[in-house]
Amino acid sequence: MSIKTFAAVDVGSFESSMKIFEFDRKNHMREIDYIGRKLDLGSDTYANRRISQDKMDELCRTLKEFMDIMKSYKVEAYQAYGTSAIREMENCTIILDQIAQRTGMQLSVLSNSEQRFLDYKSVASKGEAFRRIIEEKTAVLDIGGGSIQLSQFDNDTLVSTQNLKLGVLRIQEYLNHASAKSSQYESLIEEMAMAQLATYKKLYLKDKEIKNIIVVDDYIAPWVVKLAKTNAKQGDIKITDDMCMTPESMETFLQLLRGHQLDKLAYQMDIAEEMLPLAFISAVLIQRIAGMTGAERIYFPGVTLSDGIAYEYAEKHKLLKDVHDFEQDIVACAMNISKRYMGSRKRAETLDHITTTIFDSMMKLHGLGKRERLYLRIAAILHDCGKFISLTNIGENSYNIIMATEMIGLSHAERELVANVVRFNHSKFVYMGQSGVDTPSGGMDKQSYLTIAKLTAILRLANSLDRSHKQKLKTIKAQLKENQLILSADTMEDVTLEKRYFQAGVAFFREVFSVEPIFRQKKNF
């Protein structure tokens, strides 16, 4: 396998950047160049939902320059993403079209959950160091221009993730709008932050212990990494070789930022002076969250979204070995959502097993892939979360819960697909063209509709086989023979109820797949 060259482009709230990577024959990912251009799109977007023509022109010049640099490196593939500053523009589609016409670059927009998942992958690109840290009770704090994301890990498993509208540019815009004095900044930031963080702690932290915080940001992390690599000193601030600070050192850093010699501090930190207010906001957020969680160590891996973009590209093209199991993180997140709404773990695991058994046995027939299998697993886990609200309208309630609950790694469209599968597991299926299936997001394409139909048919059939909620069919097997799907299980349990509901679920399954499901019970005495 020859060396591959890849470019990752990040159009962020305060900076547009590109990293060039090489992937070699030894499955190594190496950054060979970084190009960054300061461009404050976020202030315009968060205040006006649009950017000025001047900034649009500057953005296009920057992206055109990036395209020229790619050619000089003979880049074989690239991926360009816009984040919240692009995502929250009311004329986003028009802007994307202009960028494509003027620069030749195809820029895609990440949903918040997709963006945070890539940031999480950027941390995972550190390999063993990442796995070692998250084996303990760890929180990943991802600080962006528009919001922050707090994700909790325990024993290498994602426990929960939540988004809070506390991005540094959003906070700065509020402070500017309020005409706040510099002496008021810290108290106002704390008030804004703690109003949301107190709720977060009550709902998601409670008595959980957090030992480590991994920080992903564009404001403090570059400076921390530079100090650690050069063994430079900054007063009493102590940074270890693995880019770790204590909360006490973070407080010392805040003391520096509270000072008035910003030009001197900017020189020492080797950052633009206009970045210092953003670094101050980020430092306050980190310090308050460290205090709230009782964390002992704060890590700064020094990665950016571009690292996550490159890592995902390598993952998809099998250019790296020993990658983290991100799919299991999404499943773990769904399990914790189910737990929040009083779902049964045993029931979820049983449905997960039955649905995937059916799905895997029909691979040649349904034409769906690994990603659709993941949607089915999530739908099985969250199949009745709406019971938390009401026992009489489970489908609609479940749909609303799933649509209102962010799942890291899933886009809005993917979440809606899962929500519809869960909805139609409980209610009458709505055919394309009828009100209900193609209207939630203003229109659904044919492929998504067919995926919903296929996954719904499988989930309904699986649901019927555990209708008693007693997990009687733990060892079910599935085999596709011509136009029949033979489902067999070794059990001595009375499955009269399951057989009755199984027959009710056969018709829709047969309609979708033109296959007759047959259930056979094998009793071993």
How would you characterize the overall build of this protein?
With 525 residues, the chain is an alpha/beta fold. It folds into 3 domains: 4-111 and 309-315, Nucleotidyltransferase, domain 5 (2-Layer Sandwich), CATH 3.30.420.40; 126-302, Exopolyphosphatase. Domain 2 (Nucleotidyltransferase, domain 5, 2-Layer Sandwich); 326-522, Hypothetical protein af1432 (Orthogonal Bundle). The chain contains 21 helices and 14 strands. The strands form 3 sheets. A 6-stranded mixed beta sheet has the order 8-7-6-9-11-10, sandwiched between helices. It has a 5-stranded mixed beta sheet with strand order 3-2-1-4-5, with helices on both faces. Strand 7 (148-154) and strand 8 form a beta hairpin. 42% of the residues are buried. Residues 438-442 have low confidence and may be disordered.
